[in-house]
Amino acid sequence: MKFLIILFLFIFPFFVSADRLEDVFRRQLLQTEFLSKTYHKDYYAYIINTSVKPHEHIVINKEELKELSQGSNVGSVQIKSLEILSRSETADFASITYKAEIEYDLGDTTIISKISGISVYLKENNDYINIYDANRF
Q1: d(Cα 83, Cα 75) in Å, to the nearest integer?
Q2: 84: confidence class by pLDDT, cuts 50, 70, 90
Q3: Please, what is the Cα angle at 40 between 35 and 46, to 5 degrees?
Q4: What does the pLDDT read at residue 44?
Q5: With 50 as the cut, is the pLDDT of residue 74 above it?
Q6: How many C-alpha atoms does 44 have within 13 Å on its Cβ side?
Q7: Residue 54 phi, psi dihedral angles, 5° rounding
């Protein structure tokens, strides 16, 4: 019985928490509309765009990301592959390092994009709020 108590008090919450983090992360990858509540008010992203030469380095905040999302004509998004390379949590923060291939519709064109990066989240009120992304696509 003591083993079951330890399992539920110490180990099970870790797995529930880890699953919730991945759920938030997947929702952000699949979003076609800006999900404001999943981003902290002071959110920033550092993006390396490899589709141009020389590679373009972009820094955007939450409001700029919102404007970009509203101005895009992105249709459905599918995750073709997702590899979580690492996941880490402390009392206040969590992070995911990943590689993914996503497919999305942009107007009449279907685009397949390979992305990789790190997402950092603030743990707040039993949820995860994205505070920083560093991405390469």
Answers
A1: 23
A2: very high
A3: 90
A4: 97
A5: yes
A6: 4
A7: -65, 160
Round to whole Å and give the CA distance between 106 and 32: 11
CA angle 84, 56, 121 (to 5 degrees): 35
What span, in angstroms and rounded, lies between the C-alpha atoms of 25 and 121? Answer: 9
At 33 the three-state DSSP class reads coil
Beta bridge partners, 44, equal: 61, 132
Closest CA to 23 of 134, 137, 133, 130: 130
Phi and psi at 27, nearest 5°, equal -60, -40
Residue 11: is its pLDDT beyond 50? no
Q: What 8-state DSSP symbol labels residue 15?
A: H
